[in-house]
Specification:
Number of helices: 10
Order of helices and strands: EEEHEEEHHEEEEHHHHHHH
Strand content: 5-15%
CATH topology of the largest domain: Transferase(Phosphotransferase), domain 1
Distance between the termini: 56 Å
CATH superfamily of the largest domain: Transferase(Phosphotransferase) domain 1
Number of strands: 10
Strand order of the largest sheet: 1-2-3-5-4
Structural class: alpha+beta
Number of domains: 2
Helix content: 25-40%
CATH class of the largest domain: Mainly Alpha
């Protein structure tokens, strides 16, 4: 427990934070809320002492330090490259708990703190407004566009990792940012989860991972997975339920992951496509503004396509290199968000 400790940079750890029910992250470290005058920050503290009690302490220590350094470097990179919809890196330092014991050092990663995560925001203030949903989708798609441009795939997009920052009005003023980069993979740098079949929360993973199908191409394996989770977020915002939990009951028994013995191919994909299409039609369409529903449904279908080789902006996927095209998806969502807000203002003035 580090509550009450002061870092050399002046940050005071005032409260230990507890991981949410669906938290994943890097599975290491303890979170604290910190203050410095009128400033507030989030501090992720990693204690290396426990590693010495493991069967192979040197291997455990190496894993802890390399994982922590990788997350620090990724956060710093994102901030240095102006990724405005990713939680900002504020610094890093070590806290010495006992001056006589070198192993008592704690690594402290300091970053921007938000107000609350998306799940909490929805439970406290409600959700399901088409205007608000499209605003959130615009912000999160921008975050993923920024990450992908930097060669980074988040791999763990879910409500608890979307954080509101600033503003008093839920629908209009708050900015939504993506946090918890503890499970990212990088196209250009080695990381702790490069060889993982699925680094993030299994409850939110795309359907190919249900069947242990791992594409070899970066776009299909990593960026298309982020696209699916973005589509799943759209369903959650609109219905309060995850896409995965809505799709699963619609898959015939013989095609369920535990029963299917075939490949992830044309025998299975039409079944999965039909299940996803039914969710979009029956659960998403009723929540949309009538004059926007066709365009939103098209985006949802492209983001949640069961085939990772086709998932993403359809026009981008036909280009050389077959990019997933979340930059195009973001532009489409941004325009839809602006139209939805204008529609809402028009109704309120009548």
């Amino acid at each position: 427990m580090l509550t009450g400790r002061t870092l050399s940079s002046g940050w005071i750890l005032v409260e230990q934070l507890h991981k949410s029910a669906d938290g994943t992250g890097g599975n290491f470290g303890v979170g604290y809320r910190a203050t410095r005058g009128s400033e507030t920050a989030f501090v992720k503290a990693v204690d290396f002492v426990e590693a010495m009690g493991k069967p192979d302490p040197m291997a455990e220590l190496h894993k802890l330090t390399s994982d922590a350094k990788f997350e620090q470097d990724v956060l710093a990179y994102c901030t240095q490259h102006g990724m405005s919809r990713v939680m900002r890196y504020l610094g890093h330092e070590y806290l010495q708990l006992d001056s006589t014991d070198l192993m008592s050092q704690v690594s402290c990663l300091i970053m921007e703190v938000g107000d609350e995560d998306l799940r909490s925001l929805m439970s406290r203030h409600g959700g399901n407004s088409c205007v608000w949903t499209l605003k959130v989708m615009s912000d999160v798609s921008l975050a993923l566009t920024q990450l992908h441009k930097g060669g980074i795939a988040h791999q763990d997009i879910k409500p608890s990792n979307v954080i509101s920052v600033g503003g008093k009005n839920v629908a209009d003023d708050k900015i939504l940012k993506v946090g918890d980069l503890g499970r990212v993979t990088s196209k250009n740098h080695k990381g702790p989860f490069d060889s993982s079949e699925w680094p993030g929360d299994l409850s939110y993973c795309p359907p190919e991972r249900w069947y242990h199908h791992v594409p070899t191409d970066w776009n299909d394996r990593r960026e298309a997975a982020d696209a699916y989770m973005l589509g799943s977020l759209l369903i959650f915002l609109s219905t309060g339920t995850t896409l995965q939990s809505l799709v699963a009951p619609l898959i015939p028994q013989q095609y369920l992951p535990n029963n299917w013995g075939g490949s992830y191919d044309q025998d299975l994909l039409p079944v999965l496509f039909d299940a996803h299409a039914r969710v979009l039609e029956d659960r998403l369409r009723p929540m949309l503004m009538s004059d926007l529903e066709a365009e939103v449904l098209k985006i949802a279908s492209e983001l949640t396509h069961p085939d990772p080789h086709l998932r993403g902006d359809a026009r981008a996927r036909r280009q050389i290199g077959r990019p997933v095209g979340l930059d195009r998806i973001h532009q489409r969502l941004r325009l839809l968000s602006m139209r939805a807000a204008a529609n809402e203002r028009g109704r309120s003035m009548r």
